[in-house]
Specification:
The chain is about 10% helix and about 35% strand. It contains eleven helices and 52 strands. The strands form twelve sheets. Strands 9-8-7-6-5-10 form a six-stranded parallel β-sheet, with helices on one face. Strands 45-35-46-51-48-49 form a six-stranded antiparallel β-sheet, with no helix packed on it. A six-stranded antiparallel β-sheet has the order 36-44-37-42-39-40. α7 runs parallel beside α8. It is elongated, with a radius of gyration of 31 Å. Pfam families: BetaGal_ABD2 (PF13364), BetaGal_dom3 (PF13363), Glyco_hydro_35 (PF01301). It catalyses: Hydrolysis of terminal non-reducing beta-D-galactose residues in beta-D-galactosides. Keywords: Glycoprotein, Glycosidase, Hydrolase, Signal.
Amino acid sequence: MELSRPNRLGRRAFSALAGTTVLGLALGGSVSSAALPYSAGPGPVPTGPPPGPPGADGTRHRVALDRYSLLVDGRRLALWSGELHPFRLPSPSLWRDVLQKLRAYGHNAVSVRLAWNQHSPAPGRYDFTGVRDLDLFLRTAAECHLYVVLHPGPYIGADVDAGGLPGWLTAAGARARTTDPAYLRHADEWLSRVNAIAARHQFTRGTGTVLLYRADTPGRADLDHLRERLSADGVEVPLLHAGSPLTWQEPGPVRDAAEARRVHFDRLAHGSTLHNVRMAFGGTSWGWLPAPSAPSPTYDPAAAIDEARRPTQKLAPLHQLGQLLRHVPDFARMTEAPAVRATDRRIRVRHLANPDTGAHAYVLRNDSAADVTSKLPMGGTDVEVTVPARDAKLLATGLHLGAGRRLAYATVQPMLSLSVGKLDIAAFVGRAGETAHLVLDCPDEPWPTRLDEEAAWTFDHGELHVMVPLEEDRLTRVRVRSGETDRTLLLLFADDAASLRLWPYETPSGRVLVRGPELLREAALDGATIHLTGDTVGERELEVWTPPGITDVTWNGERVQSGLGRALSLMTVWPLPGVPELVLPALDGWRRRTEDFEREPGYGDEGWTVADRRTSHSTTPVPDGQPVLFADDYGFHYGDVWYRARLTGAPDLESVSLSYSTGAHGLLMAWLDGEPLGTHRPGGPGDGKGTWTATADFRLPRDLRASLRARHGADGGPAVLSVLVRRTQHGQDAYRAARGLTSARFEGASPDVRWRIMGAAAPDPVRGPLNHGGLYGERHGWHLPGYDDGGWEPGSPADARDEVRRQGVTWFRTTFRLDVPPETDASVGLVVGDARARGVRAQVFLNGWNMGEYVGDREAAPHTFVLPNGILRTRAAANTLALAVLSDGGTAPGPGPVRLELLGSAAGGVPVKPVASPGRRG
């Protein structure tokens, strides 16, 4: 067959075309929020078509809620939301990538939390630009046709430093999360800034897709105050809080696909209609963002879409359930029905029914350690079902699968039911290795056609029995015709892997279904052509079911040769191409330099802040007779902090005891007159709220004591005590607990002590206040692109482990270039550390952005830092990599080998704009 000449449609032209269409499908209906008696009578809002796909359509919409579900323009909407924290993906271009994936995988909403501390470096100062551009995020969500559930706090939890409260609030004398007027002034200012943006994107006004507003309202007085605030700011969408008629369902992390089924099916069985998958995408807790409750840079490794934006095995059941709720209207209003029991009581059954359509649903759960096969009464028949160990199934009876065809029962889960032209399509999913048994009520004998070899069927007493063994990553198709209708029913059977390559989509001209690629991002109809964009990893055949009149297909702008298949679909003649191989460069050309100049007695600290306060707003008591040493009281809220004390009258000093308070992975290093006293780490479980306290007792070595007497006896001037504290994060529930030094004691002498303190320099105007701390190199731009490191000595992090141990800070820098081909989305990671890096702490900076901290704990396992495209320059551009390494004197001054690793790649992706990464000036 002669291939036609390619007809290319550019991405910009496609986007303009897609912008004229209605993209995505809204989730309609609800499950009752309480156990209701089964009734054959219709409810107040009967089962019907769901609301249309959301968008900024310029039309006012009515949004309300009752005890069952949300009501959008008088239609029931069961929300299937996926949570995404924009602040954990510091590349605005990639917001579109993840939002499109959420929509493709069945979500109709995105739940968004906003971290106050990321936007506010100081009282009265707010920044909503760059990676903090809320307006851009909300526009992108509307373009991806996702509702938005907005949660701006002020307190959001989310394993963020202080639960999202800004660092400066710790020293503001305001009692957060109360009706304290001092706190409300700050909180109102924050919410007013957010609300001014959110109000412009409300779905009720037709100017966006913000559908719900979630609140941190611990008490009634707080709720009344918030309502007044929202009213004044023009926010009119429903407010969700602890006393709302509907409960916001938010199950915790799950380990695997089986647990995901148990958890989410259980929520469905108990009437969840406002359901949130937390986290749908975990992302990165970069910089000093993470709370002690989750200190790793990788946030929620159990997320359905991982940190590198790749699907995981936990995604399949979420995808299947999301598509079910969007495309099977019977599930829009299910109520509790009479109890049904399996013969084997290890299977627990919850029975639901739709009083409008007569459809029934059965949620089966097996918490035992063995697969269980049992009889279950469904649709008037005892059906043999098998539920795998510690797994769950969702089965149905009575579903109408298009014109005149009704599902009697099936041993596999329905995933979708839709009509495309004169074709009715129903998809069912199960686990690979099981046999699907589906029975259709057929008054007249049908004419089934096996389109794939696996299927078999029999017809008996008005029932068509279809049996299909489910194979790994394989779709089986059966076509059913009959004389009673001119519509054809196409049955699709898939296992988890094959279901992840089924993509329903809705356009103004009708629905389409696409099979084959790893992702379908958008679909648009233009004349006789359907234009598709998406991703492939390996070579994939493309099959498309479209409305009548569509004869041509383009994929990512390229026309693909296709023809009509036996399943009444358009099928490509040649597979879609996979992603080309990508080779990453080795990291070489490293240069290194030690710092911690602050340890030297002659270091000039005249510009440092004098630490002489006597009172504090902290919940940590100030020791009697000592000054306040807490870092927050002097404006240093993130990262490392240095202290220098001049000790007058200390020639007979024998020991120094330093008490300090940190978050997870904190440590303390001390020097006296430039000589190391040692490194200390807090032990024990902490206070349970994210704070670890410890006292480091350093006994001076004999030679240092002799040196003190020689230098500082008889008016020899003060000794200098230098202390570096890695103070780390505030606890979510103890934001005012001290960080840094808390007190100091001296034995052998009673010196007069004068303290000075230094932490992070002014917040980075682009990267924000959580990007850097108080290390010398950070204060002087060693982490930034453009810094002149030509005078540094050659040396790599791997070579450093063979060198003399030292206590202090060592920096490493290098540059590298990537040349990722156009139209390839490559996710790249940086692997840091090995088993010999115990005790090491290393901050990773990419183009000046702090990607997080490597911690060499007892196992000292390597950690992979995901480098988000946009911050990472992938198109033939230079990248600057810098590491700031803290070593304790007993470990090497380097974390070991550092290398780039390809975490995943796809042909497709979204266009990525570089994230602003200004370098050092001067």
